[in-house]
Design a protein that fits this description.
Largest sheet: 5 strands, antiparallel
Strand content: 15-25%
Number of helices: 15
Number of domains: 3
CATH superfamily of the largest domain: Multidrug efflux transporter AcrB pore domain
Helix content: 40-55%
Structural class: alpha+beta
Number of strands: 15
Length: about 525
């Protein structure tokens, strides 16, 4: 059971089959608003022309766009996501090593038809449990934290192609965007000092010329306050090259230009600087393929990216690389479900110990749980083969909903063992049968009701397991675990429970005789005479 559990592909939440697609578009760094609006109109025209699309919207931001589309009907959302990807977007060659791009393009270029140049597009069917936008329950965030921002970006750029080669990673969304063209004032401290200006004063002047600075408040009679902002006129900001020639009145009474005290130098800037746990950070959000288990992708990134880079020194000791998002949720889910399963076992055992007035008989009953767990895993593996090979549908995985099936099994499968043990004890105590005859009579009298109740439960749940339909992604794994656990535990309980009960009863009798003997030897009457 342990090895089956370790080999089972695990994910956090099932995707479901919601009839909606969300996507994003990464535009060229530093592109103008007019250019982005033109790209948005082109995307809207192409997506609305798709036969699967019924409704569409798109939101344009400075460096990224978000869009959503509702499918016309049926189960067309996944098909529409693929159509949007191939008719609008360019392939993600930027995330592949240079020596792999040509071979990758030759293999997949037939799927891309007249892509819009200069953009990268990804579209995904929305998860029914989606809490992180389009990726829903199928996203992993690789976060790199440290103090030196340039070092973090270099590490992230090294990780990007390695993560892209990890099986199951469909796309990567970086939290940063390099290459945004900008002009940076390079302060000439000597000239600024000659003009009587400090670095803070030069920065204040630059802010006033470009974005404006707040200089005072104006309170109206109604009590409303208005910020008074000082900013250069539009005629001085029409062209960015004009900034260097703008005059500055210095404290010494002289007039100098901005370019004399702080020459403007072209540079490649960043769009944002993020912090995680009070440290500078960059992150790579990995969108996992809907058919890929998140657990396997997490292990692939940890073993194939993070650990090798830590060993060769690319990630120094003062830089922290960890997995967040669904990866952290998956780890928390495993811990929570593990302790919930153990707690269910303990509570069930203690309740039976109180009813049987024994600690041995409940142990015999509770040992039927591992058989049920093995049956649940076996049925889940069979359904993965059935859906993937026979039906051609996404296979069920070990997720939160499926794990609930194992906890439910604890309360279901012990019933059969309780019937056998309780009936055997009744034959022994009330009818005076010997232990062997009582066990045989108990199995003989309970085999029919056990099989009848189990068969009705299994046959009632088989349509949930084998008949696909709307919402089947949510309950198919749960049903498979319960059906498999009932099938295996019922057959083996009628064989294993009598054997374990026999050994347990003999052990209890032997232990009781030993305690009586020790008590007799310890008593004054049983200790013998002094001669």
């Amino acid at each position: 059971t342990y090895f089956m559990a370790r080999s089972m592909p695990a994910t956090y939440l099932p995707l479901g089959n919601q009839n909606f697609v969300l996507g994003y578009v990464i535009t060229e760094a530093g592109a103008s608003v007019e250019h982005n609006l033109g790209v948005a109109r082109e995307i809207e025209g192409r997506v609305r022309a798709l036969p699967q699309c019924r409704r569409f919207f798109i939101v344009t931001l400075p460096d990224v766009m978000f869009f959503g589309a509702r499918a016309a009907g049926g189960n067309q959302a996944r098909e529409m996501a693929s159509a949007i990807q191939t008719t609008v977007g360019s392939p993600p060659l930027a995330y592949l090593p240079q020596n792999m791009r040509e071979a990758w393009w030759e293999r997949f270029k037939a799927y891309y038809r007249d892509p819009i140049p200069g953009i990268v597009v990804d579209a995904q069917q929305v998860s029914i449990f989606g809490r992180r936008g389009m990726a829903g329950g199928q996203s992993i965030t690789l976060t790199v934290r440290g103090d030196r921002l340039d070092e973090l970006y270099n590490i992230a750029e090294t990780m990007k192609p390695m993560v892209a080669r990890t099986p199951g990673v469909q796309f990567i969304i970086p939290s940063y965007k390099l290459g945004k063209w900008e002009l940076r004032p390079a302060l000439d401290r000597k000239r600024a000092a000659d003009a009587g200006m400090t670095a803070a004063e030069v920065g204040y002047v630059v802010a006033a010329l470009v974005n404006g600075v707040k200089v005072a408040d104006f309170r109206q009679q109604s009590g409303r306050e208005i910020d008074l902002t000082l900013r250069a006129g539009p005629e001085h900001r029409r062209h960015i090259e004009q900034l260097a020639d703008l005059p500055i009145w210095t404290p010494t009474g002289r007039t100098v230009t901005l370019g004399q005290v702080a020459p403007l130098q072209p540079a490649s800037g960043l769009t944002s600087i993020n912090r995680t746990e009070q440290q500078r950070s960059v992150s790579l959000t990995c969108v996992v393929s809907p058919d890929a288990p998140v657990g396997a992708v997490v292990d692939g990134i940890r073993q194939g990216v993070i650990e090798p880079l830590q060993k060769d020194g690319t990630i120094p000791p003062d830089v922290i690389a960890d997995l967040r998002g669904t990866a952290r949720d998956l780890a928390r889910m495993w811990d929570a479900m593990k302790w919930s399963f153990a707690l269910a076992m303990v509570i069930t055992y203690l309740l039976m110990a109180a009813l049987f007035e024994s600690f041995t008989h409940p142990l015999v009953v509770i040992l039927s749980v591992p058989l049920a767990v093995a049956g649940g895993y076996g049925m889940l593996l069979f359904m993965m083969f059935w859906n993937g090979v026979v039906m051609g549908q996404p296979p069920p995985m070990l997720d939160v909903v499926t794990m609930l099936g194992f906890i439910i099994l604890v309360g279901i499968i012990v019933n059969n063992a309780i019937l056998v043990v309780a009936q055997a004890l009744a034959y022994m105590h009330k009818e005076g049968l010997a232990m062997r005859e009582a066990v045989l009579a108990s199995v003989d009298s309970r085999i029919r009701p056990v099989f009848m109740s189990t068969l009705t439960s299994i046959l009632g749940m088989l349509p949930l397991v084998f008949r696909p339909g709307p919402g089947s992604e949510l309950y198919q794994g749960l049903g498979a675990v319960i059906v498999g656990g009932l099938m295996v535990s019922t057959v083996f309980t009628l064989i294993l429970t009598p054997v374990l009960f026999t050994f347990g009863y003999r052990f209890e009798e032997g232990w009781h005789r030993l305690l009586v003997r020790l008590h007799v030897l310890a008593s004054p009457e049983g200790g013998g005479s002094d001669g």
